[in-house]
Amino acid sequence: MRVSRWLRNEYLIYPILIGLLAVYVIFNRGLLSVFQIQSLITSSAPYLLVGLGEAVVIIAGGIDLSIGYMVSLTCVVVATTTGPLGVPLALVVGTAAGLANGILITRFRLSPLVTTLATGSFFFGVALHILPTPGGSVPGWVSNLAEENLGPIPIMAFLLILVIVMAWVTLYRVPAGRHVFAVGDNLEGARQSGIDDQRIRIATYAVAGTLAGVAGIFLAGQTSSGDPNIGTPFTLNAILVAVLGGTSLAGGVGTIGGVVAASFVLTVINDIIFLTNASSYLQYIVSGGILIGMLGVSRGLRLIRPVPAPPAKRVPGR
Amino acid sequence: MTVLSPFIRAENIEKRFGATQALRGAALDVGPGRVHALLGENGAGKSTMMKILAGHYRPDKGSLTVDGTKIQDLAHWTTQSATALGIVAVYQELSLAPHLSVAESLFLGVERGSLGFEHGLIRPRRRLEAARELLASYDLSEIDPTAVVGDLSLAIQQMVEVVKALARRPRILLLDEATSSLPDGYVRKLFDIVQRLKKAGVAVIFVSHRLDEVDQFADHASIFRDGTNAGSMDAPFDRQQLIEMMAGHVLETNQPRSAPAGDVGTPLIAVRGMVLKPGKAPIDVNIQSGEVVGVAGLEGHGQQEFLLSLFGAYRPVSAILQVHGRRIRLASPRRMIRQGVVLVPQNRKTEALHLDLSIQENASLMSLSEISTLGWVHSRQERARVSALIERLAVRKNRVDDPASSLSGGNQQKLVFAKVMLTNPDVLLLVDPMRGVDVATKAALFDIIGQMADSGKAIVLYSSDTSELVGLASRVLVFYEYHVVATLRTPNINNETLVEAAFHQGGLNNAGIALVTE
Q: What number of C-beta contacts closer than 8 Å exist between A and B?
């Protein structure tokens, strides 16, 4: 195996994760307890869900800045709907919100950046309107799903595995999944290959919405209440997890394994910040710093990695 | 006045783009007050030479002498250094900013600020006056200097581009197909301008595909072929000799392909009354199974649009398209692919390949539905099919998981072929598939195309290098200004006939070759 392959961003996340875990364990042997591992999994869950959704959108060449507010909105929906309808309604709301993003961006040819920034503000406003301050109540079984364990394993772990397997099959074993990569890598090429690029792109935004919905339900279950502000940090963290996991912001490149590892990395970093008794605001600084750092690293890697010569421009300078 | 002669001299110029040697030992020599035409077929290296003179490209080897002084530092030869020496170029593609006004465009980069300072404030009214004067001095006062460039017709934009070059007070003016979008009236005005420049001692070098203009404008002509000088001539020009010099003589002659015997059933693909641009003559073509139909002509005369229209990726003014005898309404690439019509696009990097995806993923992208059941892709079957084909096409082996970007240009092109062949198409549309590939790959692609035709597929091949069509196509449609001007058939397809037809010189044909004019 050539070295250059391992220098690619896709694989960079694994040594980072192993290194971080090693450091963490050395300074805090308590991590090796069953409880700590359970808590690592449940804390990572929302990052994994939104990161996966964001990664799919980015692989297809888009970006979703509304994902955190979709988490807020669905969380609020679960906490304010009485009866058994809360969870399905939240999933429908999440999917519909993502679908709206996708349709606006592809059918009306709007910029993904500005469109999702605007729809995000819209979702946030709706969430605040439904539930201005944290509150509401969540059905017991939702809390159990989020909190309880089956034997030593958190129930959430099974759910995450289910999501990962479904994502893997769709991305790697279904033609549409391959089309996601193709559309993100070269939109014109995909069109000329007969791929319905609009449908693919709409679907990625819808998937991001659904996964944001799952994350919102989970967070409502974990806190046993609804909070319109709960999703706010998740937009940046979703992008962070996707990029940290090797997803190229230029589209066409990304792996599920990388996203899973990156969500653990983010959780461990947050835990370390918590354990050092540093201000919790440090989390925001660290998240932003890592994202900028990652972009710098991938730029640097591109410089040292042997890249085939760029296509000869027909008319340079014009 | 002692004149340093010649003004500009280029010697032994070499320039390479990837696998393509664009110029090999080319030379050019132009004196003051001379109008020098640079002629040759597509890809002969004319434009590359012009761009080297203008500083857009740096030559790999060779020397440039301007005003008797040799340019020592060719490694830093840029448009700025060329402009400083008074070399200004006008290209076929426009470089104007569409949202600026004519006056702003004309003086862009050479504005004089208040008090004559280079970095002083711009005085719009003064600039407007200067623009009006400048346009009037070239008999172009009908162009409104306050008009926004993007709103003007292509011809007027081209004239603005010319005047913009003149505002830079060139001593050496390069016109690279600058007349291609001009109607006769403006060609006339451009001619007057060139005459004035000539009297003022400016050297003009120009590239044009219209031989009539060459007769009018030029004192001297250099003919390029395959990146080097094929000859030169003084006015008046002998056309027949010019064409022979441009066409050259092909050494290898492929076994000529003959059209499939008899008219066999319904054509695989047929087009009726296809009008590519408003007011152009309609095109009617039937293409049978096993036929290779060539498409030729000077670059940018509608060949690409014709193939893209057959694929549904370009919307002609009107057309009736039939595949297997069935009419296709609202043609789109998706629909055409489903009918078995596939296209190898001109630019493999931007239109055909996904460079970050693996070789295997690229190859199977269009045929995933055939190797999956109920939406599940059989990865082993996929790998087997792709590997077999990749091996057959002699793309570098056993690394089907590497990204497509790791392949060389020629192998990338083979990969594009592999991709469309995996869909098992009936009709193959090839847009200049040999561009920028080396000789070995070219031969391999020739073989592939021949085999595909033998197995009963219909092939439409557009090539900017007409010699590639010789021996491969059994029929060639020659385009000129968005319609077919001639259809050549097998015994009469050779370099001379193709070049003659492409330059629309059917009338001068004295070799007794029947040109079927449509």
A: 98
